[in-house]
Amino acid sequence: MSESETPRFRYTAALANEIEPRWQAWWAEHGTFHAPNPSGDLADPAHPRAGAPKLHVQDMFPYPSGAGLHVGHPLGYIGTDSYTRYKRMAGYNVLHPMGFDAFGLPAEQYAVQTGTHPAVTTAANVERYKTQLRRLGLAYDDRRSFATTDPEYYRWTQWIFTQVFNSWYDEKIHKARPIPELIAEFEAGTRPTPEQPWSELSPVERRKLIDDHRLAYVSEAPVNWCPGLGTVLANEEVTPDGRSERGNYPVFQRSLKQWMMRITAYCDRLIEDLDTLDWPEPVKLMQRNWIGRSKGAHVDFPVGADTITVFTTRPDTLFGATYMVLAPEHELVDKITPAEWPAGTNRAWTGGHDDPGAAIAAYRALAAAKTDEERTESKEKTGVFTGAFATNPVNGKEIPVFIADYVLAGYGTGAIMAVPGQDERDWAFAEVFELPIIRTVKAPDGFEGAYTGEGPAINSDWLDGKGIAEAKAAMIAWLELHGHGRGATTYRLRDWLFSRQRYWGEPFPIVYDETGLPIALPDEMLPVVLPDVDDFSPRTFDPDDANSEPETPLSRKKDWVNVELDLGDGLKSYTRETNTMPQWAGSCWYELRYLDPKNEKELVGAENEAYWMGPARDGDSGGVDLYVGGVEHAVLHLLYARFWHKVLYDLGHVSSFEPFRKLFNQGYIQAYAFRDARGVIVPAEEVVERDGKWFYNDAPVTREYGKMGKSLKNVVTPDEMCEQYGADTFRVYEMAMGPLDVSRPWETRAVIGSQRFLQRVWRLVVDEETGALRTTDEPLEPAVRKHLHRTIAGVREDMDELRFNTAIAKLIELTNTLTPLPSASREAIEPLVLMTSPFAPHLAEELWRKLGHQDSLAYAGFPEADPAQLKAESITYPVQVNGKVRGRVEVTPEASESEVREAALAAVAEVIDGRTPKKVIVVAGRLVSVVI
RNA sequence: GCCCGGGUGGUGGAAUGGCAGACACGGCCGCCUUAAAAGCGGCUGCCUUACGAGGCGUGCGGGUUCGAGACCCGCCCCGGGCACCA
C-alpha cells in the first residue's frame, strides 16, 4: 500500500499503532482502572465507583511460558475485558485483576539444560507476557498483579499450608477445627483416644496421634521413580509400557514419604455445594464423577477363619451372589489358598495348573506383564480359581473365590461379590467360567444378559417383591442387625498428594526435630524463602537400580536444610522439609489475594473479602462473580481451590464458602496445519488455497486441524496482529468471530472485516482528508433514532449474556445505517462510540476526546435505551397458508386480533381462492397462520 | 464401552416453537483509478425460471404441532472427557 495515496486521516494500522500506546500510557498514568477497596491501603473514597455495587471478574491466570502468547490465549482475557469495561461504564465497581502462575516444571527443566536460574527465566517470561497483554489494552488494576513466585505471595501460600496443617476435620459437625481444640478434647476425655488414655501417652505418642488427625499429613505413598532421570514422574510422564516419556528409562513404583492433604474429608461438601454454584452442568458432573461417591454396604464373607470384606452398591442383590473375585494383588489371596484343588474342581477354573498355588502365581505373572491399558481394554474376562470357598451370609451357601484382573486392587476393598444376574462384567465372567446365574431383580420378558434396571426383587426370600431402593435399605438393616456388614459410602477420590521432589516450587514451612516428626514454623518465620542452589539437575542413578533413593534438589543444600531455630524452647537444631509444593498450590487461593494484595498482616482483610466475595444473601456461596477459563481445569484446579477455600471458611478466614460462584468455559482458537507429500509440516502462513485444495510452493499439501504450536508451524501471535491491524481490530475480531464458549479455527484473512468496521466508525467522526470533526449536532431522523435505541437495548442484553458476537453485529448494523446519511449526528455517534469502547477501547477513547470530552470514557455512563423509542410504529405480519408464507400485512401495534385476522385473510384472498379456512391462528406481534 | 458437547451456505457464525442463513470472510459485478491496492456500492444456499415467480433446503429416518434448525423417539458422523469404580 502506498502511504502517500491513503487519505491522511484514515484509521489504519499505522494510526492504530500511534493511538494505542498513547492511551495505554494515559490509563497507566491516571490509574484509570484502579478499583477501590472498602478499606486498607487500596481504599479510595473519592473514586467514582467507591461504594457502588461490585463485580469481581477473573480469568484463570496463565503460566508464562517461554513461547509467549499466541492468538488463542487472550480470547478469554479480551472477553472478560470487554465485559468488565461494559459493566464499569454501567455503574459497577469492577475488580478485574491478572497475575501469573509462575512456579512450574518448564523453567526448572530449562535450568537443568542451560544453568539459567528459573527465577531469571520466569521473570523474563512474566515481563514478556505483561508487555504482550499491555499491548492489547486490557484494563487490569496493575496494583493487584503478582506472580505466585513472589516471596510476598508465597508467604501466604505457606501460611495457608500451616493453617491446613494446624487443623483437623470434626466429622460430627462436618467442619475443620484448629488442632488445639482437638488436644483440649483429648485432654478433657470428651474425645476418646484409640488405645491408651491421653494422660498415659508419651509426648511423642501424643504428637503422632495428633499428626494422624491433621488435614496435612505425612504418609507413605507410591510414586513413579525413574532412577535414570533421578526424578519422580507424574503419571502423564510415564508411557504405557512403564518407561519415562523423556529419555525412555525404566520407571519403578516405589513408596516414598509424601505430604498428603485430607481432601477426602470434604467429599460430601464438595459434592453437595456444587448445587449452589452457577457452573456449566458438564463441569459439575465431571467433579461429581471424579469424587465418585457411591452409597452401598460393606458385607463380610467368611472364608474359613478369615473374612473377605467387599463393598457393593447393590446389597439388595446379595441372594444372587454366586461367586467372589479378589484382585490378584489382594492380601488375603495367599492366606486362603489351599494346597490342592478341591475335589471335583471344574477344569476351566484351574488354568490348566496342577495346584492353586501354581495357578495363582501364573495368573499374577500374566497380569503383571500386562500394561494397564491391556488390562482394562481386554473385553474377555480372565481369572483363576483360588481353591477357596466363601460363605454367603444371607443364605449360608458356599461360593467359589476367584482372582481376576477386572477387579482393581486400588478401588473399594479390592474384592467384590459377583452378581452376574445384575452386573454385566460379572455376567461375562460367569459365562466364561460356567458359573451359576441367579436373577434377583425381575427383568422384562425376553431380556437377555445382566439386568441393571429397576424391578421387583425375586429369588431373594424375604426381599421378594420389594423395589431396589426398599430392598437395599432392608438388606443393610438386616446386615447390621446380624453383624454381617454395614451401610457404607465410598469415594473414588483419594487424598491429595501434595509434595514434589522438585526445586522450582514453594518450600514447605516445616521443620523436623530429633523425633523426626514435623513442626510447622510460626507465622513470623514466613516466608521460608526458596534458597539459591548451584545445580538444578537431580542426581541420577543407574537406570535399572530400583532401590536407589530419590534425592530432592533442596536436600543437597545442607547449610539450608540444617537450621538452628528457637521455636519456643530455646535454640535447637532442626532439619527442613526438602520437598516443594505442587504447582496447584499457588493457584488454589489467588482469587483471594487480588482483593487485598498489599496486606502484610492478613491473607485478605475481612472487610475487603466480604465486599468482593462475600455471600450476597442467605444460602449464597459467595465467591468470584465470574471466573473464565478452559474446561481442562474442570476437575483438578477447581476441586483443589474449592477444598482450600472451604478449609479457610471453616477456620473463619473468609466469609464465602466457595471460591467461584459462576464459571464460564471459553472455547479454544485452533488452527489449520499442513503437511507435504513426505508428511513434513510446512509453514501454514505460506500455504495458498486454490479451488478447495492447498499448495505450498505449488506442491499440493494436506490440511489438518489442531492446536496452535511451534511444531505445527501454525502459530499466529497477537503481536503480529497488533502490527498488521492494531490491537482494537484484533480485539473486535476475536469477539466477533463467534460465541465465547465455542472453539473455532483462526483465519487471519477475515480480520480485515473488523478493521473495515472500525474504519467506518472512525469516518463518522473524523474527515479522512482533512482530519476535521465531521460530527454535527443535527437531530436524527425518527427512524434512525428508533434503530439507535433498538441497538442500545439489544447490545446491553447481549453484553449481559456475554454474547459479544451478536452485540458487535448490532453495532455494525447501526454503523452501516449511519454511514450513508448526509449528516453524522452526534445524537447517534456518541452512543455508538461508547458502545464500541468495550471492544475497541483505544479507538473509542480517541474519538471521545475528538468529540470534545476531556476525560476517559471508562466511567462514562453506558447508553440507555428510551423505552418510548422501542415501540414499533407498525408491525408487519407474514401470513402463512398451510405453513408457507403467501403474503404480508402491515398494521399498527394497537390493531386488535380480529383486525389483524381480517387484514391477513384479505392479503391472501387469492391463495385461499374462496375456500373457508379451517383455522386461523394470530400470534401477537409475530405472524398469522391460515389452515385450509 | 460409558458420559458430555456438537452437526445450519464455499468459510466463521445468526435465529424466546413463528419469515432459516443476521453480521463477517471469501467469491462475482460495478464505481473511483492510466493501472493496481485501499475505499465505496450491488449480487451471492441449491435447482427451475417465461425474471413475475415457483420448488427444495438446518447430518439421516420417523413423530408431536396450524407451524420444528429448535421439542420427542431411533440411527449416523465429528470433537472432548473417563477407563472393568463393584
From TrEMBL:
Methionyl/Valyl/Leucyl/Isoleucyl-tRNA synthetase anticodon-binding domain: residues covered: 785-897
Annotated ranges, domain Leucyl-tRNA synthetase editing: 288-480
InterPro entries: aa-tRNA-synth_I_CS, Leu-tRNA-ligase, Leu_tRNA-synth_edit, M/V/L/I-tRNA-synth_anticd-bd, Methionyl/Leucyl_tRNA_Synth, Rossmann-like_a/b/a_fold, tRNAsynth_Ia_anticodon-bd, Val/Leu/Ile-tRNA-synth_edit
Intracellular or extracellular location(s): Cytoplasm
GO biological process assignments: leucyl-tRNA aminoacylation
Pfam family, any one: Anticodon_1
Family named by the database record: Belongs to the class-I aminoacyl-tRNA synthetase family.
Entry-linked HAMAP family: Leu_tRNA_synth_B
Name of the protein in its database record: Leucine--tRNA ligase
Gene (name only): leuS
